[in-house]
Structure formats: C-alpha cells, structure tokens
TrEMBL record:
Domain of life of the organism encoding this protein: Bacteria
Database matches in Pfam families: DUF1415
Protein name: DUF1415 domain-containing protein
Organism: Pacificibacter maritimus
Length: 201
C-alpha cells in the first residue's frame, strides 16, 4: 500500500470536505489538541502565531511499511524546505497506523534525525516528537510530564530552526519552558489533563 498523504495548508479556508473522512478526523483531532492543549495551556511559544496565521501544513500518512513511512518524512522535509516560510512555517506529519508502539516510533524518529545529520540540515530543520504514549526516559510512568509530548497520533513536527531561534530570542529563559510546562500540568491536575488528552491515559 502506498503512503497516502493529504495536506491542509489553510485549515480555515481549505475545502476539508475534499479529504477522506478518515483524514478529516486526523487533522481535526490534531487541531483540537493544538488549540486546547498546546496553545490553550501555552506549552509552546511558537505554536500560537503560526496556527493563527494558518501557516501549519498537516500531512496524514497511512503507510503500512517502514520504507513508506520513511519516504513520507522525506517528502514533508522537501516540502518544507521548498516552500516559502510565509506559506508553510512548520509541518506536522501524523501517522495513522504502524507506530502504535512507542519504541517503533522512536526507531523512526532516530532514522529521521540521522537523515537531517547526514544531509547537513540540522541547522535548518529541527524535529519535535509526539506520541499518544510518549514516555520520557528515566521518569516514572505515571508522571504528568509525559503529557507535554502526548498527541492523538504518532507525530513528527518539522520546525524551521531560524524561526525557532527568533521566537526563543524573545523568551527570557527558554531553558525553563519544559519545567514551566510540567508545573502547568501539575497545577491543572491529572483529571483535567487526562480529559484533555484521553488517548494518553
């Protein structure tokens, strides 16, 4: 089965009905997570502006093989680098099948990172990782910190490094973002966090 990808550059104006029902659900569920969790709780200083300006490209991959999933990443990497940042500031690649196991997802993430390093692109593109069962190494399994990286679907977030640098230049202590996010989730409490991220329970 070939990797089927459908992207939405401007979700507010794009004809979402042109997508398959399944892909509509993936994009809308992801957007709901972004709106309620990432932006709603201010977990990422970069997210709000690009979402407001409709500069996020959403790609959905139904690939059933490792090679096809790897190719989907290469496709989105080429799309991001080949498009003006005012049109696509950042990309989210969501996988609908085959990466339910977190370790399998980490294997793909490692491969993608190696591609960036081999192609000497680490100063242009940065990867952020999200998974329904995201687990930080060395942290208790029931710790709420895992929810900072738990998304409805296994997801690769491709970010332009120069844009991240510009955004973080306006953040007084960027190294504290992660710690502040943990404080936010702990203050919110497990019941409310799990209500926002039911897939991560």
């Amino acid at each position: 089965m070939a990797c089927k990808q459908e992207g939405i550059e401007q979700i507010n104006t794009f004809d979402i009905n042109a997508l398959s029902i399944a892909h509509q659900d993936v994009v809308l569920n992801t957007r709901k997570w972004l709106d309620q969790m990432v932006v709603g709780l201010n977990l990422c200083p970069f997210a709000s502006s690009v979402i407001t300006r409709d500069q996020v490209y959403y790609a959905v991959c139904d690939a059933t093989t490792k090679a096809e999933r790897e190719q989907s990443f290469v496709t989105e990497l080429q799309r991001l680098l080949g498009t003006n940042e005012n049109s696509i500031a950042t990309s989210l690649l969501m996988f609908t099948t085959g990466l339910e196991d977190f370790d399998a997802y980490l294997d793909l993430l490692d491969w993608c990172q190696q591609i960036l390093e081999t192609a000497d692109l680490t100063e242009q593109v940065q990867l952020a990782s999200f998974h329904p069962q995201y687990q930080f190494d060395g942290v208790a399994a029931d710790d709420l910190s895992h929810f900072t990286n738990r998304a409805p679907y296994p997801t690769l977030h491709l970010l332009r490094q120069d844009q991240m640098t510009k955004v973080l230049a306006h953040v007084s202590e960027p190294e504290k973002i992660y710690l502040d996010n943990i404080k936010t989730l702990n203050k919110l409490g497990r019941q409310k966090v799990e209500a926002l991220c039911p897939w991560g329970r």
